[in-house]
Amino acid sequence: MTPTLRTERLLLEPYIPEDEEGFVALFQDTTVSQWMGEGPASEAADRALFGRIFTKVYAQDLFDVWAVRRNGLLVGHAEIKPTDVVGGHEIIYALAPAAWGSGLGTELAEAIVAYGFGTLGLTKVHATVAAQNEASLTLLDRIGFEYVRDIEEDDGSITRVLARRLTVTDKSPSPDGGGVKRCL
């Protein structure tokens, strides 16, 4: 079951059904969705995706998916999951444009990585990022991710595969997620 995590300014908790409108609004914002998966999708597809979080991901305990809140408001989405593309666990995160530029992206990415290293016991975490998404590439570089390889997509675009390894400078894995406060 996906646990609730806290950072200095964010609360990561499992989605609740009442989050559907906020989730759809986030994924329908093309400045956000252009960098997610296959890019912008229809509203119906985003609603179906939200439904699968409950009927598949949470119901089968497949991986961790969080609603990201700040001051009680849904401001983002986060995941950590195993994927064949990277041959390991990948972090996925998105914030609404109103939350950009204040360091929340770094705080969110660090929280997911700490959870992966601490709670999940991983020694390496991946991220896949569109080569044109300079903001995300810069953020991940700043927090210790390194280039692994490029993937050429069917449409000719390039996706960068990055990885961060657990090092002695990382916080020791601990029951609270390696520095992320876990709520009980």
Question: What would your notes on this structure say?
Answer:
With 184 residues, this protein is an alpha+beta fold. 29% of the residues lie in helices and 30% in strands. A 6-stranded antiparallel sheet has the order 5-4-3-2-1-9, with helices on both faces. The chain has a 3-stranded antiparallel sheet with strand order 6-8-7. Helix 1 crosses helix 3 (43-58). The longest helix is centred in the first third of the chain and has 16 residues, at 43-58. Residues 172-184 have low confidence and may be disordered.
Structure keywords:
single chain, 184 residues, alpha+beta, 3-stranded antiparallel sheet, 5 helices, 9 strands
How do the strands and helices of this protein lay out in sequence?
Layout: E1 5-6, E2 11-13, H1 20-28, H2 30-33, H3 43-58, E3 64-70, E4 73-83, E5 88-95, H4 104-118, E6 124-130, H5 134-142, E7 146-152, E8 158-165, E9 181-182
Antiparallel strand pairs: 1-2, 1-9, 2-3, 3-4, 4-5, 6-8, 7-8
Helix pairs in contact: 1-3
Helix proportion of residues, in percent?
25-40%
Note the overall shape: globular
Strand order of the largest sheet: 5-4-3-2-1-9
Order of helices and strands: EEHHHEEEHEHEEE
Quick one: how many beta strands? 9
Poorly predicted tracts of residues: 172-184
Main sheet record: 6 strands, antiparallel
Mean pLDDT, as a whole number?
90
Structural class: alpha+beta
Distance between the termini: 12 Å
Strand content: 25-35%
Number of helices: 5
Radius of gyration: 16 Å
Quick overview of this protein structure:
This protein has helices at 20-28, 30-33, 43-58, 104-118, 134-142, and strands at 5-6, 11-13, 64-70, 73-83, 88-95, 124-130, 146-152, 158-165, 181-182. The chain is of the alpha+beta class.
